[in-house]
TrEMBL record:
Domain PAS: 137-208
GO terms under biological process: phosphorelay signal transduction system
Protein's recorded name: Histidine kinase
Keyword Calcium recorded: no
InterPro entries associated with the record: CheY-like_superfamily, PAS, PAS-like_dom_sf, Sig_transdc_resp-reg_receiver
SMART domains linked: PAS, REC
Stored PROSITE patterns: PAS (PS50112), RESPONSE_REGULATORY (PS50110)
Stored SUPFAM superfamilies: CheY-like, PYP-like sensor domain (PAS domain)
Keywords (A to Z) from UniProt: Phosphoprotein
Length: 333
């Protein structure tokens, strides 16, 4: 697969003999390739920096630059391209230093052969590609973490200490990042909730399915309590078994729901009043009006009926005022 692929290499080498040798090695192992050569660091043109090389082979001792300074500059100019350092000298300490500066590999020219060069190039290309994927993945994690609109944090599953928090968590809870990183997740929970938290955490660490709505009470820095809905996932963070948490504050939502429930309860009371208490005086009034022949009544009977109408009307007026009062109270919730 690799041998049939077309590659474009850059060789920075001032020695003609080494250039021809490396060129022959490449032709033997990677026939479908092109090779650009420079003999000096100063030969680079600005437009060369835009060329997409698959790998760079760098001689450590050029006429106008060498050693650490050369490796540093090339790695800076071609940060996304694997760089293989070539040298005629064996310095293990410098070889490690070159890798730390950004080089992908370090080869001794006297030990070089087609197989060694081929393996180094292929491994370096694949390693660099994997590192770039990892870097993109880490950047994506950072963006999702830092720009999450909800408070988000990572904590160590063993020590329960906060390992990282996003800006939203800092602003919402009132702790500084330094304060967070010196706390555990127990510090944002009421003391009476700790046993429940520990029981839930035990199941979570065992990766058991967590039941329920996952709504908990959290404490802000000022001591106020909030109700939060927790979404959590176990991850590996800096070689530690950890958990990433997204906390959605639903305090206002719960309070709003409680108001609605209270309103509904009051509406039920009003309905009961209308269906039971209102009907009695209304039925009494209707009965008096319907069953009475006024011209046949004497004065005492008329007075008795008028008193009944007045009492029923007064009762009905009181019930109406009670309904109006309850309705106004509902509007103020």
């Amino acid at each position: 697969m690799f041998k049939n692929k077309s590659y474009h290499f850059l060789l920075i080498e001032d020695n003609d003999g080494d250039y021809y040798l490396i060129s022959d090695y490449l032709k033997e192992k990677l026939p479908e390739h092109s090779l650009t050569r420079y003999s000096r660091f100063s030969d680079f043109k600005e437009n060369e920096l835009n060329v997409k090389y698959d790998a760079i082979l760098l001689d450590l001792n050029l006429p106008d630059n060498k050693g650490n300074d050369l490796v540093t500059k090339i790695c800076h100019l071609f940060a996304e391209i694997p760089i293989i350092v070539l040298t005629g000298e064996v310095f293990e300490e410098f070889a490690l230093h070159a890798i730390s500066l950004g080089a992908s590999d370090y080869l001794i020219k006297d030990n070089l052969n087609p197989d060694i060069l081929y393996k180094s190039i292929i491994y370096s290309i694949e390693r660099k590609a994997n590192l770039q994927l990892l870097k993109k993945s880490q950047q994506l994690y950072y963006d999702l973490f830092e720009f999450n609109p909800q408070p988000t944090w990572v904590y160590d599953l063993e020590t329960l200490r906060f390992l990282d928090v996003n800006e939203k968590a800092i602003n919402h809870y009132g702790y500084s990042k330094e304060e967070f990183l010196n706390m555990t997740i127990k510090d944002i929970r009421p003391k009476e909730d700790i046993p429940i938290m520990e029981a839930s955490l035990k199941d979570f660490k065992a990766e058991k399915k967590l039941e329920g709505k996952r709504i908990f009470t959290h404490l802000k820095q000022n001591g106020s309590e909030i109700q939060v809905k927790i979404d959590s996932k176990i991850i590996t963070y800096m070689n530690r078994r950890a958990a990433i948490i997204v906390a959605t504050d639903i305090t206002e939502e719960i309070e709003h729901q409680q108001i609605i429930e209270k309103q509904n309860e009051e509406l039920k009371n009003i309905t009961w009043i209308q269906s039971h208490l209102v009907r009695a005086p209304v039925a009494k009034i209707l009965s008096i009006v319907k069953e009475t022949t006024w011209h046949e009544l004497n004065g005492e009977e008329r007075n008795f009926l008028f008193k009944g109408l007045n009492d029923s009307a007064t009762e009905l007026d009181g019930i109406t005022r009670q309904i109006i009062g309850k309705s106004e109270a509902i509007l103020q919730l």
